[in-house]
Structures are given as structure tokens and as C-alpha cells.
Amino acid sequence: MRPVSILMALTVVGVLYMAILERDRLVAFATGGPVTAQEATTAEAGDAAEAAQAEAPAQVQTIAQQAKTAEAEAGTKHPPISVVALKSTARTVDNAVLLRGQTEALRQVEVRAETSGQVISEPLRKGTFVEKGQLLCEIDIGTREATLAEAEARLIEAQINYTAASKLAESGYAAETRAASARAALQSAEAAVKAAKKDIERLHVTAPFEGLLESDAAELGSLLQAGGVCATVIQLDPIKLVGFVPETQVDKVELGAMAGARLASGMEITGKVTFISRSADPLTRTFRVEVTVPNPDLRIRDGQTAEIAVAAEGAAAHLLPQSALTLDDEGTLGVRIVEEGDVAGFLPVQVLRDSVDGVWLTGLPETVEVIVSGQEYVVDGVPLKVTYEGAS
Length: 392
Hints:
By secondary structure, the protein is α+β, with helices and mostly antiparallel strands. It is built from five helices and 22 strands. It has five domains: 1-30, no CATH class; 36-77; 81-92 and 316-391, Beta Barrel (conserved putative lor/sdh protein from methanococcus maripaludis s2 fold); 115-224, Helix Hairpins, CATH 1.10.287.470; 234-310, Efflux pump adaptor protein, beta barrel domain (Elongation Factor Tu (Ef-tu), domain 3, Beta Barrel), CATH 2.40.30. The protein has helices at residues 3-20, 23-31, 37-77, 144-171, 176-201, and strands at 81-89, 91-93, 97-112, 117-118, 129-130, 135-138, 204-206, 211-213, 223-224, 229-246, 258-263, 268-276, 286-293, 305-310, 315-320, 325-327, 333-339, 343-348, 350-355, 358-362, 367-373, 384-391. The strands form six sheets. Strands 3-10-13-12-11-14 form a six-stranded antiparallel barrel. A hairpin with a 2-residue loop joins strand 19 (350-355) and strand 20 (358-362). GO terms for molecular function: efflux transmembrane transporter activity. Residues 245-313 form the CusB-like beta-barrel domain. It holds the Pfam family BSH_RND.
């Protein structure tokens, strides 16, 4: 081997040794000062930190962009939830006020005797229809005829005395006080005659109005005292429907408004509002409402239970199944709807009234797609796979 080649090889090895293993000393020699290993390491760390600081904003922006992209991809890839929806269009319906009440006789009175005595008439049985002025009870006249005859005789005597006293007073043969006393006696006798006649008239107890006997008339031979009940008469044509409306709805009820009712027997009747109380019940805070209904055939009885609907101003409402109602997180009553893009939404509603076909709701747009099945499993913004039940 040539000596030159060996020297060149050794030179290369020495240069590599200095560049790799003795780098710090080589740098120090080149810069003209000593550099320790710690200073070199610190310098390298500072350079790395500056480079990392320069690159940090770009990395943060890149990570944020990647997060947004991942979130968008996750929302797009979320599987839609299958629901059943109903296309509904608002309709104008009567905004009726619903009441629970009962029928009540237009008039009911206990007919009482005004004088005492024994009943001498055959009793009328309950359920009998009586006309106004018809005899219900007749009381024995007793000694009343004799009392009347005595009163009439005293009247004749008082008239004679008064005539004589008046003539004497005019002639100056008697004092004016005597004539005045005779006049007073005459007036007293006239009053006694009227009282005796009136007492005889009171022997006949009659019906104050046409109606039905709710009780038997006083029995033959029974003794009636003044104020004793002869019979009870009720008037059923027309008849009243009586209900109580809460204070939140009383302003919706007006005099003369049409009203309908369904009795417990299934009979349906109609009438008009004839009375609205101005004073609330202190316990229930409700107001009495009366509806007058014709009852010519007397089929409607006193005291029957009735469901009363009083007509009010019409309102636009949707007829939906009661199962479509739900609550949001704040407890607001409403329905879930299908919004544009087939995503779920929520709208609050007010219940107008219920029926056998569903509930009438207000507070919705004129046309709306309401979720009627699966609404409990979705929230706002959730994508939907919609199957339509039909339009209403």
C-alpha cells in the first residue's frame, strides 16, 4: 500500500472524529472562545423553542380546522330517526266554553195556607199537571160565615150612627167630636167586613202558576195551620241549565249566546244564556251561568246532570291526536314538528278543547307537520326520516 493513501485515510478519520465527537471544541476553536457542553445544550434548546413558538399558531389553526371538519362530518353522518308525522291545516272552530252543571226548574214553590182549618178537598197526586189558579186545597169554612154576618151587621149599625151624628153636627145639636167618633166606628166596621171576606177567600188554596205537582196535596181531613204546606209546584217549561264558569273564562260568556248541552241520558238540547252572575262563589271562585231551554213536552227533568257548551268567538285551531302533546325541557306544553330540511323542532300550544276525535290546539302556524309518533325520542335539530300519516 502506498504511504500517501494511508495518510489520506488517517486525515479523513481525524476530520470525522473532530466533526462528530469533538464538535464543541471545534466550534470553540473556530469562534475564538471556549464553549461548555451545557451552554451548547442550552443554545440548542433555545433554538428549538423559538422554532416551536413560530410553528405553534399554525398548528393550533390546523387542529381547530380539523376539529370543525370532524364535527361537521359527525353531524352529517348521524343516522336520522324514523318518525310518523301528520300534515295539518288550521280550521276555524267555535271557541266554546265547557261547563259541568245540571238542569233546574224555572220556578219551584211550596204553596202554603194563609189560614187554619180542616182540609175538605180530595188531594191531587204528585205528577199532576195544574193550571194557574187551579184549586189545590180547600179548607172548611167553619164559623167564618157567622163572623162575616156579624161584621156586616155591625157595619149597618155603624152607618146609621154615623149618619145621625153627621146631621146633628151640621144642625149644631151635637159636637164635631161625636161625628168623628161615629166615622171611625164606621171605618172599623168596614175593615172587619173586608177581613172576614178575605179570610173566606183564603179557604181556597190555588196554584200560583201552571206546572207539575212535585208532592201530593194536603190529605182530606188533615188540619192545616197558617203557613202549613198544601203542595209543591214546579214549572219545567222552560227549564234552566245551571253551570259554573271559572274566572279565567267568564269574559268569553255573553248574555244571549247560544248554548248546547248533553244530558246524562244522551239527550241533546239547545238554548240561550239568560243570566251571568256578577259575584263569584267565595270558595270555588266560579260564576253562576244560567241557560234557558224550551221544554214543551216536559221530557227534561229537574236535577239532571248536563255537559254544557256555551258558544264563544271562533278561533283557528288544529285537530290533533292527544298523544302528539309533549313537554320541552322547561315543562312547556307543545308538539314536535318537522322543520325545513327534515329536522325536529318544538312549538308551544294551547288546548282549546278536547273531543272524541282528538284535541283542538291553537298557537300553531296555518299549516304544520306535526310528529305524532316518535316525538319523545327527538330533540331540536335532530335529523328525521319522516313517514306521513295523512293530511287533516
